Amino acid sequence: MMVLDGCFMLELFRDVAEGFKKLGYPRNDPVFAMRGSMHSIQRDMIMLENQLPFFVLDRLLGLQFNNSGQKGLLAQLALIFFDPLMPSPLTKSDRITLELSLGSAAIFDPLPDQGGLHCLDVFRKSLLRSGPKPVPGYWTKRRSNANRVADKRRQQLIHCVTELREAGIKLRKRKTDRFWDVKFEKGILRVPRLLIHDGTKSLFLNLIALEQCHIHCGNEITSFVIFMDNLINSPEDVAYLHYCGIMEHWLGSDADVADLFNQLCQEVVFDINDSYLSQLSEDVNHYYNHKWNTWRASLKHNYFSNPWAIVSLFAAVVLLLLTFTQAFFGVYAYYRPRS
Fold first, then answer.
1. Which residues cross the membrane (predicted)?
2. Residue 205: closest CA among 220, 189, 225, 184
C-alpha cells in the first residue's frame, strides 16, 4: 500500500513541477489532468494521519531516477507541490524589496541537505527556516502535566488588537515571508502578512498536532497560533488587521476568521513560558501597563483623530486662554486700580 501511494505521490509532485504533458499523460487523463481538484488533494496529503515515511518516498524516487544517492530533490518537489498552502505569500512589491535588502538566496530555502519524517515535517521545517531555535524535547516532555493544563487564562500571551490600540500600541505589516517573525519596538508591533483561506484551518491543526505528538518538535507554530488567537477576539480585530495589511482572507466574513482562530487551540496543551514569543509578549504587556501610554493614546484618539477635532481643540484652548487673561486683568485691576 505504501509503494502504491508513494508512486502516486511522486507522480503528483513531478506533475506540478514539470507538467503532466511532459510526463506523458494526455489532456483528458481522469486524475492528473483535473487541475481543479489539486487543492483538495494537497489538503488531504498534508494531513498528519495520511503521511508516508519520507525514506520510503526517497527510496522510490531513487529507483525511478536510478540514483539512490540524490539529496534534497524529494524535499524540493514536495515544497513546490505544497507551496499553495503557504500561509504568508509575499506581494510582488514586498518580494522585490526583500530581495534587495536580503538577497534572493534568503527568500526561499528548499532544504537541499535536510530530510524529514514525512512531507508535513518537511513543510513545517520550510516554514521555520532560520527561525526560532526549538526548545529541547526532554525539557518539554518532563514538565508536570499539572503545570501545562490547557487553561485559557494560562494561554494569554498578549491583549487583543482593540485593547492594544487603546494603549497606544500601533500595528504595522512586516515585509517578510516568515509569518511567525513578529517584532515589537518603540510601541509598534510588526506582524508579517498572513493569508487565510479554506485550507488554513486544516493546515494549522495538523501542524499543531505534529508539534503536540512528536517529542523532537518545538512548539513554534502552536505559539504563533495562540498569539494570533489572543490578538483576535472579535470581527473588529480582524477588520483592523486587514486595514493594516497584516491579514487577508478568502472566507465569508471577518467573524468567520475570528471564530477560526478562537477554535484552533481548544484543548491544546501549552505553557506560555515555553514560547519563543514570551519575551516579546512581556515587552508588549509592559508597554500596555504604562498608564502614560494609555492617556496619550486616548488624547490622540479623542482630540487629534481628524482635522475638525484638532480645530475644535485649538479653538477651545484659545478661548480658555482669553478667559484666563480676562480674569487675570479683572483681578489685577481690582487690587491695583488706576490712580
1. 308-335
2. 225
pLDDT in tens, 173-183: 988 878 888 99
The three grid cell numbers given for residue 288, joined into one nine-digit string: 500596555
Cα 278 versus chain centre, distance: 16
User: What is the per-residue pLDDT across 203-243, written as a single tens digit (0 to 9) for each?
Assistant: 999 999 999 888 888 889 999 999 999 999 999 999 999 99
Q: Which three cell numbers stand for residue 82?
A: 505544497
Q: Rounded to whole angstroms, how far apart are CA atoms 38 and 255? A: 28
- DSSP β-bridge partners for residue 171: 189
Is 88 within 8 Å of 107 (Cβ atoms)?
no
Residue 44: burial class (beta carbons within 10 Å; 0-12, 13-18, 19+) = exposed
pTM (2 decimals)?
A: 0.74
Write down the domain spans for the chain: 2-85, 149-292, 306-339
Cell of 214: 512528536
Backbone dihedral region for residue 173 (phi beyond 0: left; psi -120 to 50: alpha; all else: beta)? beta
Q: Which of 241, 116, 128 is nearest to 177 (CA)?
A: 128
Closest by Cα among 212, 214, 217 to 266: 212
Please give the Cα distance from 165 to 171 (Å, whole number).
8
